[in-house]
Every structure is written in C-alpha cells, then in structure tokens.
Amino acid sequence: MYTVSEITNIWQKAQSILEKKFDKKTYDSFFSETYILDITNNKVIFAVNSQLTKSLIESNYKKEIINALLKHTKMEFNL
Fold it and tell me: What is the end-to-end Cα distance of the chain in Å, rounded?
C-alpha cells in the first residue's frame, strides 16, 4: 500500500520522464492533467480528463507509462 505522498512522488518522477520523451503538445494533451488515484497490488489506477484521453492512453501510451514507472521505481506495474 502506498501513501498519497508516495503515489504523488512516483507519478511526478514518471511525468518528468514522459515530458522528456514526448513533444510539449503530446505531453500536455495526455499526461499533464493525468494523475494516479491508487496503486494496489502493482496495479495503477489513473484519473484522466475524458474517455477519449483514456482510450488514447491505453492504445498509444500505455507501454511508455509502464516503462517510465519501471525506470523510476524499478518495479513493474499494470495499468
């Protein structure tokens, strides 16, 4: 179980990795307003601003998010 502070820190570090990987428009569209609601049993639950954003993240950016989380935490997560 992670504290809110730990979850926030994990996502901020992952976001900094993603921000370097993608152009500003892509980062702002998909990651800047996204946050982690919970991490349980290595499953990450995100809050996103729309169903479209959710679908696009799942189909296009899921692997990059998992890799950013792995790079920061050295743990494998599922979304």
Answer: 16
Residue 13 main-chain phi, psi, to 5 deg = -65, -45
Q: Token match 């993608």: residue?
A: 22
User: 38: helix, coil or strand?
Assistant: strand
57 and 34 Cβ atoms separated by less than 8 Å: yes
The pTM for the full model equals: 0.90
Q: Give the Cα separation of 72 and 79 in Å (integer).
A: 16
pLDDT digits 0-9 by tens, 39-59: 999 999 999 999 999 999 999
Beta pairing partners, 79: none
Residue type, 7: I
> Is 36:46 a contact under the CB 8 Å cutoff?
yes
